Amino acid sequence: MTTAKTIADTLRPLAPGAKLAADDVPLIDKLAAQWDARFQGKVISQAGIDLIKRFEGLRLKAYPDPATGGEPWTIGIGHTGGVRPGDVITEARAEQLLRQDVGRFERAVARLCPVTTQPQFDALVSFAFNVGEGNLESSTLRKLHNAGDYAGAAGQFERWNRAARKIMTGLTRRRAAEAQLYRSGS
């Protein structure tokens, strides 16, 4: 039984006259897609992991944010949580931290953008990993994606190339790569 049918069967007795209206169907389909994405555990592919690694790089000693010269301190492959100047880790620990961090953003993207192809999902996880869940949530990119305007959404990546109000060459390249990956699945 599909998730949408299960939801419809559950809601039908609660509807007026025990009948669902035609305009209930798109709402149920959207809810089903969100439910499936959250509970079927969509995960980033190796192409998405490789994209993140390419732009984050691997640094085994803590370093300051390039835009601010300080916070947030980063280590490994883009890990920022609880990092202090002078911290050192192994490559194995960097990989472990990456997998933990990516998991958080996989769940965020599945919740915020429930209907994605694998390349779109990978690009959005990389984007959220870099800019944060809150920025993805409030972005025009997300709004356009969820409205089905994939070309418009792809065009939004390039707008996110600043850190501390400065255009960053690395972010410009990363956004171009994310947009290219996103478009490949549209």
Automatic annotation (TrEMBL):
One Pfam family this sequence matches: Phage_lysozyme
Record InterPro entries: Bacteriophage_GH24 (IPR051018), Endolysin_autolysin (IPR033907), Endolysin_T4_type (IPR034690), Glyco_hydro_24 (IPR002196), Lysozyme-like_dom_sf (IPR023346), Lysozyme_dom_sf (IPR023347)
Keywords: Antimicrobial, Bacteriolytic enzyme, Glycosidase, Host cytoplasm, Hydrolase
Top EC class of this enzyme: hydrolase
GO biological process, one term: peptidoglycan catabolic process
Reaction catalysis annotation: Hydrolysis of (1->4)-beta-linkages between N-acetylmuramic acid and N-acetyl-D-glucosamine residues in a peptidoglycan and between N-acetyl-D-glucosamine residues in chitodextrins
CDD domains hit by this protein: lyz_endolysin_autolysin
Molecular function in Gene Ontology: lysozyme activity
Domain of life: Bacteria
EC numbers for this chain: 3.2.1.17
PANTHER family: LYSOZYME RRRD-RELATED (PTHR38107:SF3), PTHR38107
Homology family: Belongs to the glycosyl hydrolase 24 family.
Protein name per the record: Lysozyme
Species, as recorded: Sphingopyxis flava
High-level lineage: Bacteria, Pseudomonadati, Pseudomonadota, Alphaproteobacteria, Sphingomonadales
